[in-house]
């Protein structure tokens, strides 16, 4: 069975802060983290993530944040992304966020469409090339969102998102190549650009956004993808999510998320792993951002469902390098599934994974997540990323 090993060779925080007090410290915080990993599809990977946060007195959230990341692998992945978030603009009545990035990958996962696609572990050996369950993709992403606080806990969302994907098969004897020949994947999906408005509503009572202890976060988002630059397909993506946080003790939180999404029309296959949110879009169904213990983007369909349950212990706060630090732990269970228009469900139900991890908080907003999960098919999987899953 395939394994994904994550080798964290360095965990070094580079931090500049204005004060060393409890809570949210006014001033500038700059935090960075280099890391190295290994994946059987992508090879050895190396890169860095960083966070630059500006705080002001009297707020429990940064005035603005800049989070750049860069990642490369020996099997040809190049990933550069930057996220900007300004929660209090135009007198605090508006929130502005922007995400932009470029990804070039030779080993994007593709197992087919539907909730019951086959997986043969003999097709993913280290000496097999090309990898059967992969294809190549070039991708550009740009998203700009404004949110208006119409009530203290209610925000209206408006903006636009743009994607451009260029995909190609790694060979005729791959899962992607076979579906391309059989017209399961139309030729028009090989080069597809979509741009359109994004609208939504958010109800948010979280006490702290980046590490909530109590409250709820509900959102409903609609994105209308319009054909541009020769693309032939229009689609509408409808997403709803509910997240809740219940304090069990001073540093213990029970957190849960339920998400459902449906696509009306035809979304290009290269975009199907993308799931929407009012904050940042993420990837699923399967992998570090959606269903831990399941292979990355394992299940693709026009309707998808996710549920996550976490027990979080924040750890004990201590000082260092001029700011508060915490090392906490989390235990989790994730489950999800998809439905496909072609009816390829074959009676399959939920797919799931379970595990635990470490949450290393450096400052007030920079949280490093190290998770290990197990699923029936994928076995042991390990992940490293920024922030809580939700």
List key phrases describing it.
two-stranded antiparallel sheet; mainly beta; 1 helix; globular
Write the layout of secondary structure elements.
Layout: E1 27-39, E2 43-55, E3 64-73, E4 78-89, E5 94-109, E6 134-151, E7 154-169, H1 175-181, E8 191-204, E9 215-228, E10 235-249, E11 252-265, E12 274-275, E13 282-283, E14 303-313, E15 318-320, E16 323-339, E17 351-362, E18 366-375, E19 379-386
Antiparallel strand pairs: 1-2, 2-3, 3-4, 4-5, 5-6, 6-7, 7-8, 8-9, 9-10, 10-11, 11-14, 12-13, 14-16, 15-16, 16-17, 17-18, 18-19
Task: Characterise the protein shown here.
There is one protein chain. With 390 residues, the chain is mainly β. 2% of the residues lie in helices and 56% in strands. It has one helix and 19 strands. The protein has one helix at residues 175-181; strands at residues 27-39, 43-55, 64-73, 78-89, 94-109, 134-151, 154-169, 191-204, 215-228, 235-249, 252-265, 274-275, 282-283, 303-313, 318-320, 323-339, 351-362, 366-375, 379-386. It has a 17-stranded antiparallel β-sheet that branches. It has a two-stranded antiparallel sheet with strand order 12-13. A hairpin with a 6-residue loop joins strand 12 and strand 13 (282-283). The longest helix has 7 residues, at 175-181. The model is unreliable at 1-23 (pLDDT under 50).
């Amino acid at each position: 069975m395939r394994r994904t090993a994550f080798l964290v060779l360095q965990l070094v925080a580079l931090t500049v802060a204005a004060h060393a007090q409890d809570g949210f410290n006014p001033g500038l915080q700059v935090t960075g983290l280099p890391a190295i990993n290994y994946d059987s599809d992508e090879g050895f990977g190396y890169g860095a993530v960083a966070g630059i946060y500006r705080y002001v007195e009297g707020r429990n959230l940064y005035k603005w944040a800049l989070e750049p990341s860069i990642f490369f692998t020996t099997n040809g992945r190049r990933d550069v992304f930057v996220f900007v978030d300004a929660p209090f603009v135009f007198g605090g009545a508006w929130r502005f966020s922007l995400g932009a990035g470029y990804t070039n990958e030779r080993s994007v996962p593709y197992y087919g469409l539907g909730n019951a696609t086959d997986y043969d572990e003999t097709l993913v050996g280290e000496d097999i090339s090309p990898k059967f369950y992969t294809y190549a993709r070039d991708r550009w992403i740009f998203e700009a969102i404004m949110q208006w606080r119409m009530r203290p806990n209610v925000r209206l969302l408006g903006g636009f998102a743009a994607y451009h994907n260029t995909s190609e098969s790694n060979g005729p004897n791959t899962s992607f190549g076979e579906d391309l020949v059989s017209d399961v994947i139309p030729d028009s999906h090989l080069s597809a650009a979509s741009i359109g408005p994004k609208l939504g509503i958010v109800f948010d009572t979280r006490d702290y956004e980046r590490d909530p202890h109590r409250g709820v976060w509900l959102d409903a988002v609609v994105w209308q993808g319009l054909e541009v630059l020769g693309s032939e397909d229009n689609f509408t993506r409808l997403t709803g999510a509910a997240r809740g946080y219940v304090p069990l003790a001073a540093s213990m939180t029970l957190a849960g998320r339920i998400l459902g999404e449906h696509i009306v029309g035809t979304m290009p296959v290269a975009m199907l792993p993308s799931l929407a949110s009012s904050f940042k879009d993420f990837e699923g169904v399967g992998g570090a951002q959606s269903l831990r213990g399941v292979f990355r983007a394992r299940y693709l369909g026009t309707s998808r469902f996710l549920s996550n349950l976490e027990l979080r212990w924040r750890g004990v706060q201590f000082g260092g390098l001029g700011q508060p630090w915490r090392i906490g732990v989390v235990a989790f269970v994730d489950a999800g599934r998809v439905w496909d228009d072609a009816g390829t469900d074959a009676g399959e139900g939920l797919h799931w994974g379970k595990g635990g991890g470490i949450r290393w908080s450096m400052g007030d907003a920079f949280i490093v997540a190290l998770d290990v999960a197990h699923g029936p098919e994928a076995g042991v999987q390990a992940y490293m990323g920024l922030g809580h899953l939700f």
